[in-house]
Design brief:
mainly beta; 22-stranded antiparallel barrel; 5-stranded mixed beta sheet
């Protein structure tokens, strides 16, 4: 992998996208245009379901273009999403620890609402952006766009496609922590066939996780594609995507010694203790609590796992798309895809502290125990495994048409979708014993339990048939209406087999089917040519098993009466969003400014059974209100900028006795992101940005914070910088520094507040780019 690969960077093939009626025409090898590339600013989304430009779309949509990723030296979806406010990452628990792109957007899990070219991208994996043209973050319930999904929106990655511009470009990068990354992007027209072109993208990326000792990552992939009929009435695209990852996963670090850490010792008193025993236990607990809370943090390079920990990911995806222009402004499209992703992982997680006092419990009650030295404190560990396969097979047909009825013009998009999705998982269990680790000096030579398949198995399948209709109705120069509706008929089947315990193992089979109706409507007022005001309403639904293909038995909890929300006899969760906003194109349409206020409510996320009547009641409501500001584009021909700010006020309006009235977990009140670059006439470009994430409370808010461990992931400011130099039209150099001040921060915190994943410390990446046109 030491060979340098080539990759497209800031001046890439995006400008050579296939022409449409609104785009500049491309001749073979020649680009003819009168338009100006507005850099970070995008004017349209990639999906044909969007029937108006972004300026006229009544919804908050952030588009991250390839040039921005290249300027920041980024290569993954998780890194790219730092450019939009309101997104955080969760650590998870047990087998879900560090499970890829664990994304939370505006307080709700969005990991199951990630799409590639408008098709759901399954699998708890980390996604690379080497074959991505732009990333579209659609905020607010959007069930009419894609069917079931998160109540606060979705993320869509738009893939690179062949064009009629012959070009090749590439990058080789080296950085701290043995980081090496190479990319390649080559586009070539086929002279023997008019309108035919091939494109090849490739990537490798390997290196250690900075300041994390044994933790490392290595991935590589390639994406060949063929296009036929470019520039003609009928166009066909054939794409293949392959990626592979071999990583050593990170089970996290204990939070001991961090700011606001609070440990409460709970050495138990004997049954019916004497007053003296009670006093002795109280004194010991007080001493242990004081000692642990005064103890230093562990070294950030400590690794508590085994050298045998691993994460292997394989993804294959083949896509075919055909487009035909039936008439001017009318196009029929059909896309088919089969994708398969496998994930195999063994990871070691860290748990509770131990060996904090001498002697036995009886000696502690007798008053002869003392607090031990921190050097001998221990940490329990657990080994977790995951063996999962995700598959998707889909066919989508879409018709777009522009026409007029009376004095109203229409931009219509309608279609059918047939989708088969499957997630199968084999259970794993520890065989043997994992030794406790020394808290401050863990060793990979310790004894670790082996993770073996235990016969448990789950298999969830969802088949969906859907129809949708979108239309933008333009009444005059000042008013338009954007509306859409979708109906999904789905069937989910779930089979599970328990771990082998006896010769005969019974399986559980559950099924659920229903019809979902979702929609959106927005009124747009255009007072002047470059400004818009809008008001919009959108909905989404998440049926039982919709997020993970897992159905649960409807039997209630014996103590609380709670029923699992994935029980097949329950109604879908339903989200509604009201949004009022404004969008403005300024500086001759080079810069867009946006502002929106919104109110989102998600209902039906809890259920319980009445012990007397046995009637199951669905309840639960989570609400968030807030506003979001955005800016993207060019202040001058040489000065680019992108920025976003979100303020959220969240509350569980109807929950359990302990959650009602609390904020949504891991949802910062304010988030801010910014980035800017300036290009000097002599070839030098400098840039930088700042990111802020407010405190994220793990159980709602400070007033209800659990006393032990960390109550919140603290607020943090992070600064990044870059400098680039264009040697000539073919060669350029670039230096990127992430976390310029080497700020210590937590990338994510687990639900119990006892362990965290380290935020990226200062890293340096030096890259060289070679390109030809």
């Amino acid at each position: 992998m030491g060979m340098a690969l080539v990759s497209l960077t800031a001046i890439d093939l995006a400008s050579a996208a296939e022409p449409t009626a609104s785009e500049p025409q491309l001749l073979r090898g020649v680009r003819v245009t009168e338009e100006v590339d507005n850099g970070y600013k995008a004017d349209t989304a990639s999906s044909p379901k969007f029937t108006a430009p972004l300026l006229d779309t009544p919804q908050t949509i952030t588009v991250i273009r390839k040039q921005l990723l290249d300027d920041q030296g980024l290569g993954s979806l998780a890194e790219a999403l730092r450019n939009t406010p309101g997104i955080t990452f969760t650590l998870g628990e047990n087998g879900n620890t560090t499970s890829g792109d664990s994304i939370s957007m505006r307080g709700f899990d969005t990991a199951g609402s990630i799409f590639l070219d408008g098709i759901r991208d399954l699998g708890a994996v980390s996604r690379d952006t080497f074959n991505t043209e732009q990333i579209e973050i659609v905020k607010g319930p959007s069930g009419s766009d894609n069917g079931r999904g998160a109540p606060t929106g979705y993320i869509n990655l738009s893939s690179k496609q062949p064009t009629l511009l012959d070009a090749a470009a590439g990058k080789q990068a080296f950085g701290t922590a043995k980081r090496r990354r190479g990319e390649a992007d080559v586009n070539q027209t086929l002279g023997a066939w008019d309108g035919a072109a091939v494109r090849f993208n490739a990537m490798y990326d390997e290196g250690d996780q900075p300041d994390r000792g044994v933790v490392d990552a290595a991935r590589w992939g390639f994406a060949p594609s063929l296009a036929l009929g470019l520039g003609g009435e009928t166009r066909a695209y054939f794409n293949f995507l392959f990626t592979k990852q071999n990583n050593t996963p990170d089970g996290g670090l204990p939070v001991i010694g961090l700011l606001n850490y609070n440990y409460q010792s709970v050495v138990a008193a004997p049954t019916n203790p004497t007053p003296a025993q009670t006093a002795n236990i109280l004194a010991l607990n007080t001493a242990i609590t004081a000692a642990v809370n005064a103890a230093p943090a562990v070294d950030r390079e400590n690794f508590y796992g085994a050298l045998s920990d691993y994460q292997h990911v394989h993804a294959n995806m083949v896509t075919a798309k055909v487009e035909h222009d039936l008439a001017a402004g009318t196009t029929l499209r059909n896309i088919s895809r089969y994708g398969r992703t496998t994930l195999q992982r063994v990871i070691t997680g860290v748990n509770g502290l131990g060996n904090l006092f001498t002697g036995t419990a009886a000696q502690a009650a007798a008053g002869t125990s003392t607090v031990t030295a921190p050097a001998v404190w221990t940490l329990t560990r657990s080994r977790q495994g995951r063996d999962e396969v995700n598959e998707i097979l889909t066919n989508q047909s879409n018709l777009t048409a522009a026409f007029a009825t009376g004095g109203i013009t229409h931009s219509l998009s309608t279609g059918l979708e047939f989708i088969y999705e499957r997630q199968a998982s084999r259970g794993m269990a520890a065989s043997g014993t994992t030794a406790v680790a020394n808290l401050y000096n863990p060793s990979t030579a310790d004894a670790f339990a082996a993770l073996l398949h235990n016969g448990a198995y789950t298999d969830g399948k969802t088949v969906t048939a859907a129809a949708y209709l979108f239309d933008t109705l333009t009444f005059n120069d000042h008013w338009s209406l954007n509306a859409g509706v979708r109906v999904d008929r789905y069937r989910t089947e779930f089979t599970s087999i328990a771990a082998v315990a006896t010769p005969v193992v019974a399986s559980t089979y559950l099924e659920d089917d229903d019809t979902l109706f979702t929609g959106k409507i927005g009124l747009v007022f255009k007072p002047v040519e470059n400004g818009r005001f809008y008001a919009a309403l959108g909905t989404s639904q998440q049926p039982p098993g919709g997020a993970n293909f897992t159905l649960s038995t409807p039997a209630p909890n014996a103590t609380t009466g709670a029923v699992n929300i994935n029980a097949p006899n329950l109604d879908p969760q339903k989200a509604t969003n009201i949004e009022v906003g404004t969008k403005w194109d300024l500086l001759e349409n080079r810069l867009v400014l946006t502002a929106a206020v919104f109110d989102t409510r998600n209902k039906n996320d809890l259920a319980k059974q009445d012990p007397a009547t046995l009637e199951i009641t669905q309840y639960g409501e989570r609400k968030l209100r807030g506003f979001e500001l955005g800016a993207s584009g060019m202040l001058t021909a040489n000065w680019q900028v992108t920025a976003g700010f979100t303020s959220l006020d969240t509350v569980v309006t109807q929950g359990t006795a302990t959650t009602t009235g609390a904020q949504l977990t891991y949802t910062p009140r304010t988030t801010f992101t910014s980035w800017t670059t300036y290009r000097f006439p002599f070839g030098l470009t400098i840039g930088g940005g700042a990111r802020f994430t407010d405190s994220q409370f793990r159980n709602g808010n400070a007033a209800q914070a659990i006393a032990t461990n960390l109550a919140a992931n603290p607020e943090v400011w992070v600064f990044d910088a870059m400098a680039g130099y264009t040697v000539n039209e073919n060669i350029s150099l670039q230096l990127n520094v992430q976390n310029l001040t080497d700020k210590f921060y937590l990338a994510s915190l687990n639900n119990g507040g006892s362990r965290f994943v380290l935020g990226t410390p200062r890293t340096i990446l030096l890259s060289g780019t070679l390109k030809f046109y």
